[in-house]
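Today's session is about reading a structure prediction critically. Students often jump straight to the picture, but the first step is always the sequence itself: look for stretches that repeat, for charged clusters, for runs of hydrophobic residues. Only then move on to the predicted structure, which in these notes is written as discrete structure tokens rather than atom positions. Here is the chain we will use throughout the hour.
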Amino acid sequence: MSKGHSRHQASRRRMYSARQRDLRERRARAAGEQQHWLSDEVAAIEIEE
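Below is the predicted structure for this chain, in token form.
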């Protein structure tokens, strides 16, 4: 029973780390898109002036 429990814990840890990596990538992508939007806005304002 303890053997199965330890194996289950290992799989849980792997799933958790994978989810954390996915969240980190998604957050980084969102931040990059936000930066892109901001740079686009600045460029549009410069062109308008």
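Discussion point for the tutorial: The mean pLDDT is 76.
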